[in-house]
Amino acid sequence: MKSTSRLGAWVAIAIGTLYFLLPLIATFEFSLKMNRDGYSFEAYKVVLADPGFQATFGYSTLMAVLTIIVGILLVVPTAYWIQLKLPRLRPLVEFITLLPLVIPAIVIVFGYLKLYNSSSWLPLTGNERATDLLLMCSYVTLALPYLYRSVDAGLRAIDVRTLTEAAESLGASWPSILLQVIFPNVKSAILSGAFLTFAVVIGEFTMASLLGRPAFGPYLQLIGSNRAYEPSALAIIAFMVTWAAMGLIQVFARNARPARKTA
Amino acid sequence: MAYLTINNLHKRFDDHVVVHDFNMHIEQGEFVTFLGPSGCGKTTVLRMIAGFETPTSGRICVGGEDITQQAAQKRGIGMVFQSYALFPNMNVTQNIGFGLKMRKCPADDIKRKVAEVIKLVELSGKENHYPHELSGGQRQRVALARALVVEPRILLLDEPLSALDARIRKNLREQIRDIQRRLGLTTIFVTHDQEEALTMSDRIFVMNQGRVEQEGRAEIVYTEPATEFVARFMGNYNLLGAADTQRLLGLNINGHLAIRPESIHVLDGHSQQDGTLAGTIRQHQLLGNIIRYQIESAGITLQVDRLNRTASDLMPAGTEVRLQISRDDMREVR
Ligand SMILES: Nc1ncnc2c1ncn2[C@@H]1O[C@H](COP(=O)(O)OP(=O)(O)OP(=O)(O)O)[C@@H](O)[C@H]1O
Ligand SMILES: [Mg+2]
């Protein structure tokens, strides 16, 4: 009984692994065949040397970093305050932060275009910097579910209320409490949220494309429809970046000192 | 005028009244205890004094200054929590120095004061340990040091010892009391352990359902309970209702009669002394230096304590005895 169920589990894992790995291996193998005479990294050289790649990747990285900063500044104090003073609102806030997963990005973008077009009261789509701002804000929206969930989980792992009160009774101001007591104790949770956000923003296509910004997602799409080998190389690179982000989440999750409620 | 005065304090959560008309006056340097069962509002009163909870009505004054609406940060009232509440990201030195840093104390002063208080709570050698590397007793001493080092006007301790095991608890409570005396610190200590309250306090406030049931010096509260509740809570009183009192002793009272188990004397069953009651031993319980008997008399079971001197003193169940209770040892309570 036991051995058959274990066998079943291994078969399921094997099928799952193949399902994920086969296309990846095939893509990788194909990306190496740019030169007729055997395997080479020629496609990668071409891609990495392309100024378009450098520009769009740099742009998306910058956007991701800004998104993370703004997202943290928005989410950490909010989640903290909800947990401390308004626990009854938590289900509502959780629901709101999940909305971006339910509402397709394209709907959100059309909403933006309608609200902020050049003849509206706040014409954010009028010039490039303003559109960048709008894009960044929409990325923050997209990142909300990931960021809020991980920060909230991190806050739940420490006794927020008592730590806050202990700091208060020692005369700490609110900024000091947030920066010196709360932030350091949810650092690893914030970081894992941040890397998830990074992975999401780097590959995002819909919003960047519809707002007409030179991001990595639209670039991937452009190359994909015009070239043969380079898109495979790009796909592998994008995968590596995402995986690096995931790997870093693991590293930080493991290095986090065991946060104990009673400590 | 007393140092800390609390007048007509009320606290309501939604429609649930948790603290009723709480009044209290504490002198500077006094050590008082809030004693009461779980849920009677001890923590809530303490949190209102600390400024973590706003009273529904009433006034709290320290040194003649009304602090009822003041922010917790500004009150200069130290608090030690049952769960220690040490900052997990800081080591012992940083935890203790936190309050001084918040007060913008110069670094040299912080260093000196932290070193002093570490010596005071006997934590030398643990300066660079993090909270998760310390035992419960050590953590609580860090928490105590952290509250002491900023020289609070009042120190509040909310069941600081209840998460610790018996031996450490005893040790630490002596240490707390000793430090409190040395620093002359006005202190409120919360507990639901009557022994702890009796051994530590100058004065005890026995609380029940959000009210002060009785307040007074420790020995008074113990020997002269004012109400049935206090008699029950301070431990082991025999409490007789009016009907039982009439039947057993032929006395007419209102309320209850409280008799301590050690004030009932057990005489030989053949004793002919006047004013004694016939009784039968039902069972006994060995409590170390005393033996507690359940003795039935006129259908009423009384608890009676006797010193446990030699093994041959033990009276088996079924033994017929006579009981003698002095009128002075009977207390009428509400
Ligand atoms: N924030 C709150 N909201 C609603 N009710 C509360 C709140 N805090 C406390 N209470 C209620 O107030 C009552 C008194 O609570 P409190 O914590 O003061 O009791 P306590 O005497 O400290 O008990 P314990 O010995 O268990 O710590 C309890 O019935 C509790 O449910
Ligand atoms: Mg309590």
In CATH, the topology of chain A is named MetI-like fold
Percent helix range of chain A: over 70%
User: Which parts of chain B are unreliable, with pLDDT below 50 for 5 consecutive residues or more?
Assistant: none
CATH superfamily of the largest domain in chain B: P-loop containing nucleotide triphosphate hydrolases
CA distance, first residue to last residue of chain A:
44 Å
**Helix/strand structural class of chain B:** alpha+beta
- The CATH class designation of the largest domain in chain B is Alpha Beta
CATH superfamily of chain A: MetI-like
Low-confidence stretches of chain A: 258-263
- Say how many strands of chain A there are: 0
Structural class of chain A: mainly alpha
Measured by residues with Cβ under 8 Å of the partner chain's Cβ, the largest interface is: A-B, 25 and 33 residues
Number of strands of chain B: 18
Helix tally of chain A? 12
Gyration radius over CA of chain B: 24 Å
* SSE pattern of chain A, N- to C-terminal: HHHHHHHHHHHH
Q: In angstroms, what separates the terminal alpha carbons of chain B?
A: 31 Å
From the coordinates shown, what is the CATH architecture of chain A? Orthogonal Bundle
Overall mean pLDDT score of chain B? 90
At CATH's second level, what is the architecture of the largest domain in chain B? 3-Layer(aba) Sandwich
CATH topology of the largest domain in chain B: Rossmann fold
Keyword list:
heterodimer; A: 263 residues; mainly alpha; MetI-like fold; 79% helix; disordered C terminus; B: 334 residues; alpha+beta; Rossmann fold; OB fold (Dihydrolipoamide Acetyltransferase, E2P); 2 domains; six-stranded mixed sheet; five-stranded antiparallel sheet; binds adenosine-5'-triphosphate; binds magnesium ion; cell membrane (chain B)
